[in-house]
Design a protein that fits this description.
With 298 residues, the protein is an alpha/beta fold. Helix content is 38%, strand content 17%. The longest helix is centred in the N-terminal third of the chain and has 16 residues. The structure holds pyridoxal-5'-phosphate (PLP).
């Protein structure tokens, strides 16, 4: 569903948001899309388990756990951070995943860096048996195929399509499905120049750009300006944003509009990729630091 953002913008610019967050209250919209063809492939390969990787607040971990329960797969989550072993019940993401039946393998940050290596994977196979492997963040060719279904024929009216970028799978699918008159703007949620090359390996056109100015210092980094922005945006529009991805993207777009980045009469479509399950965990961190929290409920 595309929703007009009820804010007056200069130069007759209009901004719509595609509410992929409404696909499910706890599981990110884009993570569902990324799993769709992977679930079919896992069945095709007769695997009864799926194994994947993620951090303590990972939207992807929550999505795999939930999809696994729905579709009758055992799920194993390799989680970064050994210290989390006895903190599952205090962590909303891990608690949800566990309630969905996910088993956890907690590993040190050092070990986590080697997660894709054969010795580590064969250790996991010995321990858990055979599984369908989904990479961190869920990005692979099948995930991109799923994200090619985000845009529909009705979205042809837009000049720009904007989304948050983590591993680059979602934007790659969007880039592959735009029309020649459209351009995609990606807002990385993390620092690093590697993303551009990564995305290039998956896409078939050049009508896209990464805007690197709005990651606020890196993945999961937030500041009080962003928190205030998300709260203000919710008050004005009733649209909830998450602090890791969509909040930074929308903050960036509104800033670019103010800076006259877009020509008059531009029609802009933002993709709300979800991520709202992460707010609870982020608010706990903010509370511990005695900082203002995110308020997206009336
Ligand atoms: C994972 C995620 C993204 C980034 O998707 P990638 O395909 O990894 O680039 C964006 N928004 C939300 C809410 C996410 O959970």
């Amino acid at each position: 569903m595309n929703q007009l953002i009820p804010i007056e913008f200069p130069n007759n610019i209009s901004v719509y948001i595609k509410r992929e967050d409404l696909i499910h209250p706890f599981v990110s919209g884009n993570k569902f899309r990324k799993l769709k063809y992977n679930l079919l492939q896992a069945k095709e390969e007769n695997e009864s388990s799926m194994l994947t990787f993620g951090g303590a607040f990972s939207n992807h971990i929550a999505a795999v756990a939930f999809a696994g329960r729905e579709q009758h797969f055992k799920t194993i989550g390799v989680i970064r951070g050994e210290e989390l072993v006895d903190k599952v019940k205090d962590n909303p993401t891990l608690k949800f995943a566990q309630e969905c039946g996910m088993q956890f393998e907690f590993v040190s940050r050092e070990m986590y860096r080697h997660k894709q290596e054969e010795t580590f994977l064969s250790h996991l196979k010995e321990k858990y048996g055979s599984f369908y492997l989904i990479p961190e963040g869920g990005t692979n060719a099948l995930a991109i195929q799923g994200c090619e279904e985000i845009l529909t024929d009705k979205d042809a009216e837009f000049d720009f399509v904007c989304c948050a970028v983590g591993t680059g799978g979602t934007i790659a699918g969007i880039i592959n499905s735009i029309l020649p008159h459209q351009k995609v703007l990606g807002f990385p949620a993390l620092k690093g120049d590697f993303l551009k090359d990564e995305i290039c390996t998956f896409v078939n056109n050049k009508n896209w750009e990464l805007i690197q100015e709005y990651h606020l210092g890196g993945y999961g980094k937030v500041n009080q300006e962003l928190v205030a922005f998300i709260n203000h945006f919710y008050k004005e529009t009733k649209i909830p944003l998450d602090p890791i991805y969509t909040g930074k993207m929308v903050f960036g777009i509104l800033d670019l509009i103010q800076k006259n980045y877009f020509s008059a009469n531009s029609k802009i479509l933002l993709i709300h990729t979800g991520g709202l399950q992460g707010i609870e965990g982020m608010n706990e961190k903010l509370k511990n630091k005695k900082l203002a929290t995110i308020k997206i409920h009336d």
